[in-house]
Each structure stands twice: as structure tokens, then as C-alpha cells.
Specification:
- Keywords: Membrane, Transmembrane, Transmembrane helix.
- This protein has 50 residues and is mainly α.
- 96% of the residues lie in helices and 0% in strands.
- The chain starts with a helix and ends with a helix.
């Protein structure tokens, strides 16, 4: 049967895609939080300089 041969690569590809997507989400979340922290820091320093 053809799907017996197609199953292992398909499973590996799906697994890899899931890992890749979760890694991308993690990085995006982290960069967003970093940008927020930097903006807050900038606001704080601007308030102090007044």
C-alpha cells in the first residue's frame, strides 16, 4: 500500500512543522514583550528628565 510508505515522512514533516510554528510563536511573543519593556523604560526616562 502506498500510504504505508507515505506515512513516516508525512509524520516527520508534520512534527517538524509543529515544532517550527511553536518556535516562531515563542520568538514573536518574546520580541513583543521586549518591545513593550523598552517602550515602558523610554517613557519612564522621559518622565524623569522633565
Amino acid at each position: 500500500m502506498w500510504f504505508e510508505f507515505a506515512l513516516p515522512p508525512l509524520a516527520a514533516t508534520t512534527f517538524f512543522a509543529i515544532i517550527l510554528l511553536s518556535a516562531v510563536e515563542l520568538v514573536r511573543h518574546r520580541t513583543a514583550r521586549n518591545a513593550e519593556a523598552q517602550a515602558a523604560l523610554k517613557r519612564k526616562t522621559m518622565q524623569q528628565s522633565r
